[in-house]
Amino acid sequence: MKDIDKWNEAVDPDNLSDDENMILDAMGLNGSSRRKFLKQVSAASLSIYASSFFTSELFANTMKDLPEKTTALLNEIKVNIKVNDMVKPLTLDSRTSLLDALRERLGLTGTKKGCDHGQCGACTVIIDGKRNLSCLTLAATCEGKEITTVEGLAKNGEMHPMQQAFLKHDGFQCGYCTPGQICSSVALLEEAKNGEVSYVTEDLKKVQSGLSLSEEEIRERMSGNICRCGAYNNIVQAFKEVHTGNDEMPTWEFATQEQMDKAKNA
Amino acid sequence: MRPFTYTRANNKEQALQAFTATSHYLGGGTNLVDLMKEDVERPDQLIDVNNLDYKKITSNDKGGLTLGAMLSNSETANNKEVRTNYPLLSMAMLSAATAQIRNMASNGGNLLQRTRCPYFFEVSMPCNKRDPGSGCGALNGMNALHAIFGYSDSCIATNPSDMCVALAAIGATVEVQQADGTSRMIEFTDFHRLPGDRPEKDTTLSQGELITAIHLPKAEFSDHYYYLKIRERSSYAFALISVAAGLQVESGVINKAGLAMGGVAHVPWKLTKAEEFLAGKKPTTENFEAAAELEMKDAKPFEANKWKVDMGKNAIVRALTQAFEREV
Amino acid sequence: MTKSINTSGVGSAINRVEGHLKVMGKAKYASEFPIENKVYGQGINSTIAKGEIVSIDTSEAEKLEGVLKVITYKNAEKLKTLEGVRPEIATDTIAPVLQSNKVHYFGQYVGLVVAETFEQAQYAASLVKFEYKKDPSAVIDFEKSRSKAYTPDNDSNYSRGNMDQGLAEADMVVEQTYNTPIEHHHPMELHAVIASWDNGKVTAYASQQIIEDAKIAISGTFQIPKKDVRVISPFVGGGFGSKLNLDRHVIMAVMASKMVDRPVQVTVTRTQMFTNTNMRQQNEQKMRVGAKKDGILTALSHETLSHTSTTQEFQEPCGMVSKMLYNVANNEVTYKLIPMNMQTPFAMRAPGEATGSFALESAMDEMAWKLKMDPIEFRIKNDTQTDLHEERPFSSRLLVECLRIGAEKFGWKDRKPEPRTNKKGNWLIGYGVSAASRNSPYQKTHSKVILELDEDKVFATIQMDATDIGTGSYTIIAQTASEYLKIPVEQVNVELGDSDFPITPGSGGSWGAASFCNGARAACENAIKTLKNNRNIAQDEEVAVSELLKKNQLTKFEAEGMAEPSAEFEKYSVFSFGANFSEVWVDKDTGMYRIKRMVNVASAGKILNPKTAYGQIIGGLTMGVGMVLAEQTRVEPNFGNFITRSFADYHVPVNLDLANIDVIFLPEEDKIANKMGIKGIGELGITSVAASVSNAIFNATGKRMRDLPITPEKLIEAGLEEGVTA
């Protein structure tokens, strides 16, 4: 199959995108180690996993190379999609959801399709500062709107603090709901700052801006993002750490030998 | 999804003019787009009314607030005037769906939410609401989540909205723009309709009418309010049963009660008898129980949803209790 | 940015090595590979439960712009079909589709539309008209079809001692039936594939748990050589058993690609995830437990009535727990299956244990209540270090430690044994406990290591066809290589999910961690052994791997390795053990309840990475909470379809349903299990959670809830106002 070839191209270590450099930085690979590692990646030329790390094509700056139009579009509409500070003019089928426009037309597959019916939150993106579901948003309605997807959260070569916290607290397993969880969390930080209320808020009349959210509040407000792997507790910890600025401690421990002996001989 | 043309309206004239018998106005799309994906809704034109200037909250001449139809549920529930004067409405709206959906969903659209009956959603099954004349699959099928009040042989579905339950308790008025350019007012209790033999019609809106505003009366329940929502999981689920309860209490006596129930009928079920019973009475458990009994004795459950009668009674008493006991 | 330089080997709580990709949205799942020229396939499902397709009208669909093909049984390629009466379903079973006009269940694939755009494919699929002849003999009602039950012919029925005698000896008998509904896995990633047929060679980017078996199933279904099939699945967005075997959408995509000569993407819809990607079947489990006054068990029987499809057989081993968990001389386990017009059920997370433990651990709680014994002491009293079913010792069994250490952490001593005595306002508060066990298999695994020297640093790449379905495979394999090569973990690159890599058993059945890591270990050990042998260096001499490469004058070296269970392993029964504790608050008016906190103690051998292991445990607990709280798929009695057909009807737990969870790992290495001392942990977490919650609900309310899920309406029906009804 011809399409596989693009996955096998050698990676040019002198010509990496910001994103690629960022990932390598995060892995602690610098200087000659980085050079070596990249050489090894191209050597392992059949590795899809490795190329998914490093093949430039996957990263956002390729948006400009994507076709503006495809075949078999009904009721064509033209929309300038402004996503992650880039504008892409697209001709779309009027039926196309923002989710499908992102994934199938713009190569931005970070936003996930989990149900396509507004029942899981995996497709959450931030539109004009608010978290929305891209699966129930028709792309046709997005003219003039500013869209941020998970790919657009990192700035200046640094992951968003929420992304770092999710990594540190293992706020995911399979990773499929993760972009939605992170977009949702980032938007929630703002909602708390703005003093927005929730169903579990004790007194709706007394709320001020700059809310410090309780665990119950965080859980309620993050309930629109389903994680079937069940990483909720780690997600809460990740959010809390960014929200409060205080380190969150793990809730696992190993039994001590003393506990073991006591239990055995009880 | 069936093909449709997309028309963006920049003012109400454009919207009204573009409307045809097979058009739908597009608000937040959280219900409509979902139903189009399911092939339940089949418009051949969507008229995007999101740019229309119905996004304000203003004072009205009744001493209450007027909510723009195109304002999002989030903005409405979080509005300071709304949450301090109509916290019952805020609470009900916040119990619904998720932050993402509330950010998208419009006030006007919320009034037009369609039922969650699975027979309505599955196009291979009969449903008079979706496909008039095809029969009601739920009547002799699985109806544990269906209506116990006001249903007909044609349809036993329930209305899924939380916001509408609070609006029924508060007593709102809906303003709509008619095709001829004039507007009319609809009392909230007249807005939704019981299924009768026309279950395909959820509301009393005429073809092409556009909701522009929801008028709230002078605030009466800002101190004693509670929206109780019973559901299968603690969030992001439609109500099994919900109760909106507002009380105005003066010198230990109930001046006025606003009560409505969700999950029990084709419309937000206003509990008029209980409201009337409670007026002038003391806010005691005995009176709350009597009020609940008065309403629930008329319930006509199916074998599979008998539990709704007991749960409904508990829910009314509990919502009233929580409303009364709330610290002012 | 945080430079999380991972320098630790096995046992360290390092961040996931692939985590950056996931939090940045860069990890590529099956439908996300930018394959040029790809088109979209949309499956069409039957709308009857049994019968025949009488006619098909594809004309309207075919004339739509952009529609390339409508495939039905009339023009589908002939495939290998299933043989025999209800052959057993396995992870490498062929998946023939669109082969005849026969319909065996509601939702069966009856067609596929291929179009240039996703929108047109979906629309066209709705326009293909099928006319059916309904067969009224469809078996869709479990209750009404009991007489059709048969005993599966797979030696799963079992007995030891004499059940009647055991019951006769008992002072107390508990005889109760526990029901669990059909449940669905619902990983967040919809099952998906991009398949290409190119001159007889198949490439499939497919979301699969077991790469080798997916390859076998494709080659078997199309009757083409295995070498001509390549399956790629570097990231899997959750599986829980639903992606163990190859489902029919993959076969349809391959077939379509051959017909339209373009790569074809098929994404299963969430509604199709109910009908076309496996399920856990409904189980009715009748338990009979006999015990002496002092708490000694005298008899235990576990009868399961369940269902399979009319075309294939699957039996969930619900009774497995009852055969091995307690010291009871008289024991009986039986199974019966009703062939029903539904898709074939298959393994869902902890098949057997998850459901069986609900029945057993609820019955044990009922017996403890009858005996007026503490439920923990009752279990400890009946502990055994020998698997009475296998007639072998356990390789290690620390269940008593799990229970006692957990009780202390949880504050079990504060529990009020009498139900309905712990109240706060409208809340009735209860504590519950349950014991957990999960078989811990270990399977033959191949792996390859590629070492490369750069100045003084050695970079290693481990390759195998293993998958990471969220379980942490990438991370623990990297840690293993780091440990055995004695190099920092950031110098290890792990490449998984490609059928061009060495064969592993894939992810499933809790065997992944032990198998993959021992496989990686074997490759690393082989590399070092060979490098030493080549230069006549004693095997026990400590030499850095960089030095070894230098001494061999190599800058690059590859080695393969294989690990498999030892003869010693076969002499033991190898299980992971655990204990679950829950505090539940039930609202007496609404029937809603909140799980306020949970404690889980896990004895699962060597913990390779406590961070990812914790994820496995809380993930299992969360799914267990789903079982008890709300998860159920219901069958429409007149049409035979699943009336719960979306995420709005089938409620999985949300964030607010969970609460604080403390997990305690026991410090254990089970060297009998395997050289690295690893046991399974992926399914231990879900086991018996439902029982610990329902036992807590009994303690809170005095109502014994024997049908899952325990919903507000069931609690209201049970009557929460007063009384204890054991």
TrEMBL record, chain A:
<dbReference type="GO" id="GO:0051537">
    <property type="term" value="F:2 iron, 2 sulfur cluster binding"/>
</dbReference>
<dbReference type="InterPro" id="IPR036010">
    <property type="entry name" value="2Fe-2S_ferredoxin-like_sf"/>
</dbReference>
<feature type="domain" description="2Fe-2S ferredoxin-type">
    <location>
        <begin position="77"/>
        <end position="153"/>
    </location>
</feature>
<keyword id="KW-0479">Metal-binding</keyword>
<dbReference type="GO" id="GO:0016903">
    <property type="term" value="F:oxidoreductase activity, acting on the aldehyde or oxo group of donors"/>
</dbReference>
<dbReference type="Pfam" id="PF01799">
    <property type="entry name" value="Fer2_2"/>
</dbReference>
<dbReference type="InterPro" id="IPR052914">
    <property type="entry name" value="Aldehyde_Oxdr_Iron-Sulfur"/>
</dbReference>
<keyword id="KW-0411">Iron-sulfur</keyword>
<dbReference type="InterPro" id="IPR001041">
    <property type="entry name" value="2Fe-2S_ferredoxin-type"/>
</dbReference>
<dbReference type="Pfam" id="PF00111">
    <property type="entry name" value="Fer2"/>
</dbReference>
<keyword id="KW-0001">2Fe-2S</keyword>
<protein>
    <submittedName>
        <fullName>Xanthine dehydrogenase YagT iron-sulfur-binding subunit</fullName>
    </submittedName>
</protein>
<dbReference type="GO" id="GO:0046872">
    <property type="term" value="F:metal ion binding"/>
</dbReference>
<dbReference type="InterPro" id="IPR002888">
    <property type="entry name" value="2Fe-2S-bd"/>
</dbReference>
<dbReference type="InterPro" id="IPR006058">
    <property type="entry name" value="2Fe2S_fd_BS"/>
</dbReference>
From TrEMBL, chain B:
<dbReference type="InterPro" id="IPR036318">
    <property type="entry name" value="FAD-bd_PCMH-like_sf"/>
</dbReference>
<keyword id="KW-0285">Flavoprotein</keyword>
<dbReference type="InterPro" id="IPR016166">
    <property type="entry name" value="FAD-bd_PCMH"/>
</dbReference>
<dbReference type="Pfam" id="PF00941">
    <property type="entry name" value="FAD_binding_5"/>
</dbReference>
<dbReference type="InterPro" id="IPR051312">
    <property type="entry name" value="Diverse_Substr_Oxidored"/>
</dbReference>
<dbReference type="InterPro" id="IPR036683">
    <property type="entry name" value="CO_DH_flav_C_dom_sf"/>
</dbReference>
<protein>
    <submittedName>
        <fullName>Xanthine dehydrogenase YagS FAD-binding subunit</fullName>
    </submittedName>
</protein>
<dbReference type="GO" id="GO:0016491">
    <property type="term" value="F:oxidoreductase activity"/>
</dbReference>
<dbReference type="InterPro" id="IPR016169">
    <property type="entry name" value="FAD-bd_PCMH_sub2"/>
</dbReference>
<dbReference type="InterPro" id="IPR016167">
    <property type="entry name" value="FAD-bd_PCMH_sub1"/>
</dbReference>
<dbReference type="Pfam" id="PF03450">
    <property type="entry name" value="CO_deh_flav_C"/>
</dbReference>
<keyword id="KW-0274">FAD</keyword>
<dbReference type="InterPro" id="IPR002346">
    <property type="entry name" value="Mopterin_DH_FAD-bd"/>
</dbReference>
<dbReference type="GO" id="GO:0071949">
    <property type="term" value="F:FAD binding"/>
</dbReference>
<feature type="domain" description="FAD-binding PCMH-type">
    <location>
        <begin position="1"/>
        <end position="221"/>
    </location>
</feature>
TrEMBL record, chain C:
<protein>
    <submittedName>
        <fullName>Xanthine dehydrogenase YagR molybdenum-binding subunit</fullName>
    </submittedName>
</protein>
<dbReference type="InterPro" id="IPR000674">
    <property type="entry name" value="Ald_Oxase/Xan_DH_a/b"/>
</dbReference>
<dbReference type="GO" id="GO:0016491">
    <property type="term" value="F:oxidoreductase activity"/>
</dbReference>
<keyword id="KW-0560">Oxidoreductase</keyword>
<feature type="domain" description="Aldehyde oxidase/xanthine dehydrogenase a/b hammerhead">
    <location>
        <begin position="24"/>
        <end position="136"/>
    </location>
</feature>
<dbReference type="InterPro" id="IPR008274">
    <property type="entry name" value="AldOxase/xan_DH_MoCoBD1"/>
</dbReference>
<dbReference type="InterPro" id="IPR016208">
    <property type="entry name" value="Ald_Oxase/xanthine_DH-like"/>
</dbReference>
<dbReference type="GO" id="GO:0005506">
    <property type="term" value="F:iron ion binding"/>
</dbReference>
<dbReference type="Pfam" id="PF02738">
    <property type="entry name" value="MoCoBD_1"/>
</dbReference>
<dbReference type="InterPro" id="IPR036856">
    <property type="entry name" value="Ald_Oxase/Xan_DH_a/b_sf"/>
</dbReference>
<dbReference type="Pfam" id="PF20256">
    <property type="entry name" value="MoCoBD_2"/>
</dbReference>
<keyword id="KW-0500">Molybdenum</keyword>
<dbReference type="Pfam" id="PF01315">
    <property type="entry name" value="Ald_Xan_dh_C"/>
</dbReference>
<dbReference type="InterPro" id="IPR037165">
    <property type="entry name" value="AldOxase/xan_DH_Mopterin-bd_sf"/>
</dbReference>
<dbReference type="InterPro" id="IPR046867">
    <property type="entry name" value="AldOxase/xan_DH_MoCoBD2"/>
</dbReference>
